[in-house]
Amino acid sequence: MIAEIGQLALILALCLALVQSASLLIGAWRLDGALMSMGRTAAVLQAAFIAVAFAALGTAYVTGDFSIALVAAHSNSAQPLLYRVGATWGSHEGSMILWVFILAVYGAAIALAGGSLRESLKARVLAVQGVVGAAFLGFLLLTSNPFLRLTPAPFDGAELNPVLQDPGLVFHPPVLYLGYVGLSIAFSFGVAALIEGRVDANWARWVRPWVLAAWIFLTIGITMGSVWSYYTLGWGGWWFWDPVENASLMPWLLATALLHSCLVLEKRGALISWTILLSILAFSMSMVGTFLVRSGVLTSVHAFAVDPKRGVYILGMIAVMTGLALGLFAWRAPRFRTGALFTAVSKEYAITLNNLFLAAATATVFLGTFYPVFVDALHGDKISVGPPYFNATFAPIFMLLFVLVSFGPMLNWKRDSLGPLLSRLIWPALASAIAVVGAILIFGIGHVMAALGFALSAWLIVGAGAVLARRWRPVSHGAFWDGLWGRMRATPLAIFGLALAHAGLGVTTLGITAMAGWQSNAVIAMTPGQSLTLAGKTVTLTGLRGIEGPNYEAAQARFAIETLAGSRVLISERRFYPDSQTTTTEAGINVGLLGNVYISIGDRAAGGGLVVRLWNHPLVNFIWGGAFMMAFGGMVSLADRRLRVAVVKRVRAPAGVLEPAAA
Hints:
By secondary structure, the protein is of the alpha+beta class. It has helices at residues 2-30, 33-63, 69-74, 81-86, 92-112, 119-143, 167-196, 201-232, 243-268, 272-295, 308-332, 347-379, 387-405, 418-424, 426-443, 448-472, 484-490, 493-518, 620-638, 641-644, and strands at 198-199, 336-337, 520-526, 531-534, 537-548, 553-563, 566-577, 582-586, 588-592, 595-604, 610-618, 656-658. Among the domains are: 1-164, no CATH class; 520-621, no CATH class.
């Protein structure tokens, strides 16, 4: 019965999504309060019905209802409860029901909030959100029904992909989807503004917190995914430029650009068309990521499905939604006007350059990800694009972008002068120079690229501190410490968040630089009692044994690690899952502030030893620590009441309205 309840709930949710979009579009057009109220109610009810369907699927997994085909294919009675819960979204169908559930929750939040939004704008935002929801619910019901029955029901099911049997499955996909789907709000706001023909400071003030929230979730989700793959896959890396990794990176890059562009629109009424375009493209990249995971056009360890029919449906959704939105943009955006002017030395200009670099980086990743698809379609040749391409194209763009990052916050709005600007950046520049010289003196001229990486890290970190120091300097001549506490308390949380995010970017850059320049590895066949030295650390294989897990068998190797800080025992396993006949690797990792020792084991060597792969990863934890620091900076900014509560300020005129058609 639970499957039928879930199925009925999804069908009703689809009907409500259609009612929501139709009633709100007509209501906004006629300024009919009753229709708009009905549409808002439909948005809330849609979320409630999808919640029922999602709960029904989760209950089926937890209770082991193997009469449902999806449960039988991705769960069995031997799986630990945690992984039966995670299996709810560990399949294609389950992940899609999570997607539409989060989409509906966002829509319900807009319906229940937004008291200061114009009723017509709010209605059109929810209408677009309803259209997106209806498209994905249709995809779910027509091609990916999660509640199909099996007759007769099997006694037990197959198991979830063993690679996914990890706590990371419980947290990583929901957080990442909160970011992916959160960008739908920006898309809906952008399309609604184009339909209405009006973009003002209130529009920007309302959309920016949603973009920031999506950016925070994307940052955390991508970072969690990197950590998960690092310790689960046993390959010793933190980023591989896998197509699905790229699929999460592209919307993050555009969301970063959109976040900065919204700030310019809110403060100065500039970059109207560019902000609208980014709001469309950012969510389109999220849908492109959905296509990559589910189409089978590219091979990835992250892929959920390889069904071309599903890929065609999603590709059609992307083409229709993005095409209509871009067509509307091409028609309406050229007629937006704004009187905001700024010089080449200004905060607006710096953010514009920042956006151009982020857009170029996104285009680079898009080309590298889809070039194999284009070549295959045109010539039938199978090729792959890997790290060498991205290192040669993406890395230089981002290095130039990092140079610009510290300029923007130190510039004034509208116009500034180079002399005062350079004086504000003297400490970041000095720190960068010291980092370059120090790195070359310590590590030699052969590591000049690493020295430049350290210089960029210092530039970003000290530059972030300079933003706060500028806010805290005395207004009049006097001691710096006089009244410092008052100036610190008067600093908006958004400024603290900005400084944390930019400093986090510097910390991540430091970790990437150390990993690129000084990581080392070894592959050796070891027998118990044998030792080797790697990067000054002595590693000894102390024992081998077989163990039994809840649903797997494992060969377990124990290693003793001797470092200057003392000794530690690491355990690495090679697991075999009989139900799926799958083998996985559980790495042993000695985590330290200055780096990790990473060990994974393979099969037995021909001579009787055990194949052992060892890595020394200097400062690798700085990569993730810096990324989480960026996300925390976003949270601090979101806590700023001026951003969190979209208070309508008095403005003399809207930032942008449509000119008359004849103009």
